[in-house]
Design a protein that fits this description.
Largest sheet: 6 strands, mixed
Number of helices: 3
CATH architecture: Roll
Number of strands: 6
Strand content: over 45%
Shape: globular
CATH topology: Nuclear Transport Factor 2, Chain: A
Structural class: alpha+beta
CATH class: Alpha Beta
Strand order of the largest sheet: 2-1-6-5-4-3
Helix content: 25-40%
Distance between the termini: 19 Å
């Protein structure tokens, strides 16, 4: 049996997705550690800290229109928060570039997101 995710953590993650989808970068960053380690999916690198994540997202929003909706959330045996996400990525003209489910895996520290990884859904 998997450990139960705390209601506080579940709420934090849901609110972070809501902020991201509204393009409220400041609010989304508020759910992350100042030294957060975040994947830069456009370049295949990592962004470290609020400033780099902000710059990455601003650049991302300038070239694509992503929308991510959590569809399931669990906690792994090692304490990571595992979120299945339906993502729809559109070109700026509205046409769909990608529509699929992916898995976001969060490492939490002190009640905030310290790291995020993206994995394919089996």
């Amino acid at each position: 049996m998997q450990p139960r995710i705390s209601p506080q953590t579940e709420e934090l993650v849901r609110r972070m997705y809501e902020a991201f989808n509204k393009r409220d970068i400041g609010a989304a960053l508020g759910f992350m550690h100042a030294d957060v380690d975040w994947p830069n999916m456009l370049e295949g690198t990592r962004a470290h800290g609020h400033a780099e994540v902000r710059t990455y997202w601003e650049g991302q929003f300038a070239v694509i229109d992503p929308h991510v909706e959590p569809t399931g959330m669990t906690q792994s045996d090692d304490g990571q928060v595992v979120v299945d996400v339906h993502q729809v990525i559109r070109h700026l003209d509205g046409t769909i570039r990608d529509d699929r489910t992916v898995r976001h895996v969060y490492t939490m520290r002190d009640g905030l997101v310290a790291r995020m990884d993206v994995r394919a859904v089996d």
